[in-house]
Design goal:
The chain has 334 residues and is an all-alpha fold. The protein has a single domain, classed as Orthogonal Bundle (MetI-like fold), CATH 1.10.3720.10. 67% of the residues lie in helices and 2% in strands. The protein contains 15 helices and 2 strands. Strands 1-2 form a two-stranded antiparallel ribbon. Helix 4 packs antiparallel against helix 12 and helix 9 runs antiparallel to helix 12. The N terminus is likely disordered.
Length: 334
């Protein structure tokens, strides 16, 4: 029987090798069109403009074409630009090394405790989440008072236990050097450690973002089936074995997600450091983002700032790729 005879009367013929665009797909693209437009206007187009700007000597107005000259000034030029960049990058990486492990460790432990059945669990969860939704500028005013060298509450508490006052956010000396000097030991500069001001900024950062990480871990814990725990307890497994053999492996996707977003957030952190120290004292807390802000809005060197922004973007991309390459393989998906 011919093909024309078996087709319904209302059917439309389609040429071989050609596919019609599904109506469902068109509807889906229509729904995401507003998001695409917003991302294109506020993300893609500015990124293209910044890339274009980074290729020129651009102060207040566009100047001569420099190609990759702005990038080489930051990376290996003999002027002050290159040393400033590498020092700021070192400070940024130190800041990441301090904050990210502390955020993951504290948020995981607290989330595990808040996941257990207890009275007032909702109140505790709300209390831990409040710092994340609190305006950090307002919180920074409180922390500046707490760590004030003259009348701060922290120094007052240290005085009760016989420890002398510290400069905290105004202290450029390394933490290890300060501790060693208390025992009469002088450490070389390479072993002095991060400045006390940077350590305080990192502690405040952990306090601020802890609630968000706890919520993510609570969501991950809720996705673990209780059957695993019941079977393990029937087999006589201890609570420590249950946590290390069941909870941690099944929570690895959530841990990997928290690790990734915490690292990206720390690499591009700006408001925390800017409000607390402004990059001081003696530039010991000046991260790459603060150097970018200084170059663009204090020195009006927008071409150099645009190049630095793309360098930072590539660094974040490199860190993310390394994380997916090395850590992503260890993630266990149930």
């Amino acid at each position: 029987m011919a093909a024309a005879e078996v087709l319904p009367k209302n059917a439309t013929s389609v040429r071989p090798g050609r596919r019609r665009f599904p109506i469902e797909a068109a509807q889906a693209y229509l729904f995401i069109l507003p998001a695409i437009v917003i991302i294109g206007i506020f993300k893609v187009l500015p990124a293209i403009a910044v890339l274009y700007m980074s290729l020129f000597k651009w102060d207040v107005i566009q100047g001569a074409f420099r190609g990759l000259g702005n990038y080489t000034d930051w990376l290996y030029d003999n002027s002050l630009r290159s040393p400033d960049f590498w020092r700021s990058l070192s400070t940024t990486l130190t800041y990441v090394i301090i904050t990210v492990p502390l955020e993951i460790a504290f948020s995981l432990v607290i989330a595990f405790l808040l996941f257990q059945k207890m009275r007032g669990r909702g109140i505790y969860r709300t209390a831990y989440y409040l710092p994340y939704v609190t305006s950090f500028v307002a919180a920074a005013v409180v922390f500046n008072w707490l760590f004030h060298p003259q009348y701060g509450l922290v120094n007052a508490l240290l005085g009760v236990v016989g420890i002398g006052p510290q400069s905290w956010l105004q202290e450029p000396d390394g933490l290890f050097a300060i501790v060693a000097s208390a025992f009469g030991v002088a450490l070389p500069d390479w072993a002095a450690g991060p400045s006390l001001a940077l350590v305080v900024v990192a502690i405040v950062t952990v306090w601020h973002y802890l609630g968000y990480q706890i919520v993510i871990f609570l969501a991950g814990l809720s996705n673990i089936s209780s059957e695993y725990y019941e079977a393990a307890r029937l087999d006589g497994a201890s609570e420590r074995q249950i946590f290390t053999k069941i909870t941690l492996p099944l929570l690895s996707p959530t841990t990997f997600f928290v690790f990734t977003i915490a690292t990206i957030g720390a690499l591009r952190s700006f408001d925390t450091v800017f409000v607390l120290t402004g990059g001081g004292p003696l530039d010991t807390t000046r991260t790459v983002t603060l150097l970018l802000f200084k170059t663009a809005f204090q020195q009006a060197q927008f071409g150099l700032a645009a190049a630095l922004a793309f360098i930072l973007t590539l660094i974040i991309l490199l860190f993310t790729l390394v994380q997916f390459r090395l850590v992503g393989r260890r993630v266990y998906y149930d």
